[in-house]
Amino acid sequence: MSRFDLTGKIALVTGASRGIGRAIAWALAEQGARVIIHYKQAEDAAASLAGRIREQGGQAWTVAADLAAPDGHIVLATGVAAILREAGADALDVLVNNAGVGLRARIADVRPEDFDRVLQVNLKTPFFLIQKLLPVLRDGGRIINVSSMGTRAAYPEMSVYAPAKAGLEALTLLLAAELGERGITVNAVLPGATATDLNERARDPEKAKVIAQTVALGRVGQPDDIADIVAFLASDAGRWVTGQRIDATGGQRL
Ligand SMILES: NC(=O)c1ccc[n+]([C@@H]2O[C@H](COP(=O)([O-])OP(=O)(O)OC[C@H]3O[C@@H](n4cnc5c(N)ncnc54)[C@H](OP(=O)(O)O)[C@@H]3O)[C@@H](O)[C@H]2O)c1
Fold first, then answer.
1. Which pLDDT belongs to residue 1?
2. Does residue 198 fall inside a structural domain?
3. CATH of the domain at 119
4. 253 domain residue, yes or no
5. Per the domain annotation, does 2 fall within a domain?
6. Are 68 and 123 in contact (CB under 8 A)?
7. Cβ < 6 Å from ligand 1: which residues?
8. CA within 20 to 30 Å of 10's CA: 59, 123, 129, 212, which one?
9. Number of structural domains in the chain
10. Is residue 5 part of a domain?
């Protein structure tokens, strides 16, 4: 069996209805993982992905939760527990904290309610979701947090988003140290401009050309570019990487 194979593993991917999360769920399923597809409102998109995975002979479930809500992590963890029971699984193998929201605003324009929402979805909910799921995460399992290259290069309009992601990366580092004794690896993946609904500029062909001039490999990212890195980290092949911030930008703003 290939060391990249994920047969028999169960993975939760948050924000898997669209964009990068959708590609991650698909990539994990391609390697044989059973996938829990979380979404907020895009029920049809989540269901169609689950349907595609099942058509290929895989197993997939969907679960809804608003991760901007203070109890979002509880709703999601409760749904995951029910799915694990239904699947006859005693533990979760892989947790991918991918769901995120952006906000393009310089510091002068940020309202406290925007600050709270961006911090909630990108940092506070992942923090408490990890806390809630740690008891059911298998020893030897994986936590992969999707951050952003906005933590290593200055983009003034990311005045709230980048600090929220930086917090997620700090959490990644300390959890890697704490969870090493359980054999759990914890890493952060840092996408650059990636063509999804969240990044309208990267989807616009003309704007994408301008961004591409700042990327060593000469184009913006596609969701699959990020998903393959996550699939590697989730697999046995990624067993010796922990506590790291993995740049997933094709060399943006090097
Ligand atoms: N795209 C980029 O250029 C880029 C760059 C750096 C980092 N990232 C990071 O990559 C991750 C994925 O981004 P993306 O570009 O794929 O975004 P996207 O296309 O906008 O998809 C966002 C996903 O997150 C879910 N989501 C949004 N708000 C939510 C909430 N309040 N509660 C629960 N789920 C919610 C959405 O669910 P619904 O479909 O149900 O709404 C969707 O599945 C994010 O963490 C983002 O910060 C993206």
1. 84
2. yes
3. 3.40.50.720
4. no
5. no
6. no
7. 15-21, 39-42, 45, 66-68, 98-102, 121, 146, 148, 191, 193-194, 196-199, 202
8. 123
9. 1
10. no
Active site (annotated) includes residue 39: no
User: Does residue 170 carry a pLDDT above 90?
Assistant: yes
Task: For residue range 20-62, list pLDDT tens digits in order.
Answer: 999 999 999 999 999 999 999 999 999 999 999 999 999 999 9
In three-state secondary structure terms, 241 is coil
The single residue of 26, 128, 161, 232 carrying the catalytic annotation is: 161
Q: Chain-centre distance of CA 98, in angstroms? A: 2
User: Both tokens of residue 75?
Assistant: 């709703």
Q: Give the ligand 1 atom nearest the CA of 69.
A: 31
Q: What is the dihedral of CA 10, 14, 15, 17, to 10 degrees?
A: 20
Residue range 133-166, pLDDT digits in tens? 999 999 999 999 999 999 999 999 999 999 999 9
Task: Give the pTM.
Answer: 0.99
Instruction: Domain of residue 148: give its range.
Output: 10-248
Distance CA 35, CA 8 (A): 10
